[in-house]
Automatic annotation (TrEMBL):
Pfam families: DegT_DnrJ_EryC1 (PF01041). This is DegT/DnrJ/EryC1/StrS family aminotransferase. Belongs to the DegT/DnrJ/EryC1 family. GO terms for biological process: polysaccharide biosynthetic process.
């Protein structure tokens, strides 16, 4: 899509660093330079003001990636695109059948009500819960990773959604300030909300997480 739009050598494309490296790779394959902007801490998608802050005369496009079942603020990004003459592209997630989305929302609602000591996801704007991503507050990654190990030891599958932001990778390392991206990479953990989970499974998730309150004390 970038090539078809004429984006190439000498151009810059604004992309998120919180997520998969494939978006930055696509920009490089088109001959352009990926420029990283910070994310909204609630949606984990590009934050419009952060995007506008990195726009230069060389900026040709913005690639917004919808994340975990939440959508990027496309309306505001298109406003920025019109103001600066930029192409705005979207990368979506694979669609889930409506019935499965309803079941995931039901399980997410249960976790929202029962979980203690973690920050549950913001459910606004039609969240489809492709992943149920909580934050483990504390001193950063060691706390989140210790929490994840303890939960797995109790038989609950969980995963770190973004282990290394793209701007930390050697081939894309940039001296940029992305505080929300860094914080999200250190604190986030995806808990299961699959439609196949039983009520007992959900109770096990809550029990395993809520038993770990000692790991969740904030740093002072």
């Amino acid at each position: 899509m970038l090539r078809a739009a004429g984006v190439g050598v000498g151009d810059e494309v604004v992309v998120p660093a919180f997520g998969n490296v494939e978006v930055a790779e696509a920009v490089v394959l088109a001959g352009a330079l990926p420029v990283f902007a910070d994310i909204d801490p609630l949606t984990y998608c590009l934050e419009a003001a952060a995007v506008e802050a990195v726009v230069t005369p060389r900026t040709a496009a913005v690639v917004a990636v919808h994340r975990f079942g939440r959508s990027a603020d496309i309306e505001r990004l298109h406003e920025i695109g019109r103001r600066h003459g930029l192409l705005v592209l979207e990368q979506g997630e694979s669609e889930v059948p409506y019935g499965e989305v309803a079941q995931r929302r039901q399980r997410a609602s249960y976790l929202d009500a029962k979980l203690k000591g973690v920050q549950t996801p913001d459910g606004g704007d039609g969240h489809t819960y492709q992943q149920y991503v909580v934050r483990v507050p504390g001193n950063g990654r060691p706390d989140r990773d210790a929490f994840a190990r303890a939960v797995r030891a109790k038989g609950v599958e969980c995963r770190v959604p973004v282990k290394t932001p793209v701007h930390r990778l050697p081939e894309y390392r940039r001296c940029v300030s992305l505080p929300e991206t860094e914080r999200a990479a250190d604190e986030t953990l995806a808990l299961p909300v699959d439609a196949a989970l039983t009520k007992r499974d959900m109770q096990r998730i809550v029990s395993a997480c809520n038993a770990l309150g000692g790991l969740l004390q904030p740093a002072f």
